[in-house]
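PT: before anyone asks, these are the final sequences, not the draft ones from last week. 290 residues across everything. Please model them as a single complex and drop the result in this thread when it's through.
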Amino acid sequence: MTPRRADSAAAAEAELVARLRAGDEAAFVELAARHQAAMLRLASAFVPSPAVAEEVVQDTWVAVLRGIDRFEGRASFKTWLLAILVNRAKSTGMSEARNVPIGDVGSAVDPSRFDAGGAWSSPPRHWVEESEDRLMARGLRGRLEATLRRLPPRQRAIVILRDIDGLDSDEVCRVLDISAGNQRVLLHRARSRLRQALEEFIDA
Amino acid sequence: MRLLRRDPLACREVVELVTDYLEGSMSRGERRRFEAHLADCPHCTGYLAQMRATIRLTGRLEPADLTAEMRDDLGELFRRLRDEER
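LR: through. Structure below.
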């Protein structure tokens, strides 16, 4: 998004928030329509089923409608909204410990692909000519979605917020209440797993 | 701390630094050392390209649009809460 388009989107959103404060139902439905799908996806990172994710989203809208007067406009509406959602999802969802996948040693690439000196012995194959559109149509979309679903909750949430919803790292730290360093480590692990899935898809 | 060493980065180290590089969180010296490795290493350059492609492709997993039914539910929720407050 160009800065100008981002600005006008932010202005449109601020106007919707102002109308919501004034009790305008249409403004609420429009705001909800903008964010609902992203909220469902994010909630799914923390709770065990789509049905529970829907409940968390619904609870979040109730909290937003009751608390809109407390929104101070220091953060963007979206950051405020998603922080409420994550709090609710975490308190509703399973414990973090239950979701740590076994065998996640935390290295970006399988260590056996390097020689004793740390140079590639099995390097990634060079970029194929196939277009990204065609890769997605050929089944990469499903593969990435499946890989995303298997990531631990916070890693999954970070990738969703950064790479799908387009938040910056400061906003993600605020939404998830984590440090910048922690955000970067978890983002690195998550993107490394997704890259691995991409490589396996291309090589298959 | 390892980065303060003078010897060149190994590929195994480079793949762990890719996110710091893309996030712009490296010091100038670290970035120079990282880019010096890339200049000599087509494999790590390819790896970085795959990481950038991964980010772009993940960004295309947009969530589905809201259905008319969901819109109706939201309107109903709004009116229910407003009526409760009266």
